[in-house]
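Troubleshooting entry. Yesterday's outputs looked truncated, so today I'm pasting the complete records for two proteins to confirm everything comes through intact. If either block looks cut off, that's the bug. Protein one:
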Amino acid sequence: MAEGELQRVVGTNLLRIRREMKLSQERLANDVLGLSTRYVAGIEAGRHNMTLRSVERLAEALGVDPIELLK
């Protein structure tokens, strides 16, 4: 796996899950996660190197298993 690949995978999966939930990026960021829209956009773009604990928290807030963000 290339460097940064897992960051892109998490971002792609977050985008897919968000769309399946029919949430705007702003609503997901502000109402569900309590994060800035800019930060969530960075995650979806694969620019943020999240810790595993952050991935767990993100999955919990979305109501999905953390593996759904990593596969």
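Protein two, checking that the full record survives here as well:
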Amino acid sequence: MTGPAGDRTVVEVGGEIDVYTAPKLREQLVELVNDGSYHLVVDMEGVDFLDSTGLGVLVGGLKRVRAHEGSLRLVCNQERILKIFRITGLTKVFPIHTTVDEAVAATD
């Protein structure tokens, strides 16, 4: 599900984000940016698995929105997924929130 939340667009992601599914997420992020949505919140609460391809798509999405002075925030409180962001150092790159409401309310 994708929908507006104030000036932010929430993208709900579930299941596995891997080499097979990441291109679909990339396509959705590119489409949103092309349509003028530059402040994205990716809700990863339903994500069971995330690999390097998925991380690459998120980083690519971040670069895309930043080119328009936008933002990409993540919503995740699952330890196994958060650990991936910590190990890769991406906690310093992405603002990570525990709820969608918190991410939407956050100021840049």
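Both blocks look complete. Sanity check on protein two: DSSP finds four helices and five strands in the chain.
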